[in-house]
């Protein structure tokens, strides 16, 4: 038995034709399909929403939001005040006024630099007897312990 295979395009055509058959025709937009006969008038809503009632609802929402924020701020303040009351009293050392020390400034920095350089020059050109001797505990051999 040999099977005859159809091209894959045949499957797509079959699906499309099946979908095409399922579509129902569009209903007739005539007055027979309306639940009641159309009224004589402009064809849109002629009465607007009551502005006064809408404004009152919006004002009520804004007022309730302000009350909630105010209540939250009051509760935060009350909670912080309660915590401050529970803290121990400050000691005299903690309440004493702090006076920082005066700044440690040099009166004549250039004279100080010149003095430091002269001392360094004197130390580097000094005779061996004037140089400081190395400490006796220091060994010159790197491997001795």
SSE layout and pairing:
Blueprint: H1 8-22, H2 51-86, H3 92-95, H4 109-124
Helix content: 40-55%
Any low-confidence stretches, pLDDT <50, length ≥5?
A: none
Number of helices: 4
Estimated structural class: mainly alpha
Largest sheet: none
| Strand coverage percent | under 5%
| 3D shape | elongated
Rg (C-alpha, Å): 50 Å
- Mean pLDDT equals 78
Number of strands: 0
| SSE series | HHHH
Task: Explain what the structure shows.
- By secondary structure, this protein is mainly alpha-helical.
- The protein has four helices and no strands.
- The protein has helices spanning 8-22, 51-86, 92-95, 109-124.
- The chain is elongated, with a radius of gyration of 50 Å.
Key traits:
about 140 residues; about 0% strand
Concise overview:
This protein has about 140 residues and is mainly alpha-helical. The chain has helices at about 10-20, 50-85, 90-95, 110-125.
């Amino acid at each position: 038995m040999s099977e005859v295979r159809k091209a894959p395009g045949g499957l797509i055509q079959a699906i499309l034709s099946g979908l095409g058959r399922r579509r129902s025709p569009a209903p007739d937009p005539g007055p027979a399909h309306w639940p009641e006969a159309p009224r004589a008038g402009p064809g849109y809503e002629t009465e607007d929403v009551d502005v006064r009632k809408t404004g009152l609802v919006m004002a009520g929402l804004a007022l309730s939001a302000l009350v909630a924020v105010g209540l939250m701020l009051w509760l935060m303040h009350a909670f912080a005040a309660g915590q401050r009351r529970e803290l121990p009293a400050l000691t005299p050392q903690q309440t004493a006024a702090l006076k920082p020390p005066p700044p440690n400034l040099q009166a004549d920095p250039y004279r100080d630099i010149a003095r430091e350089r002269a001392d360094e020059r004197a130390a580097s050109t000094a005779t061996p007897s004037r140089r400081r001797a190395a400490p006796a505990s220091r060994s010159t051999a790197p491997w001795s312990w």
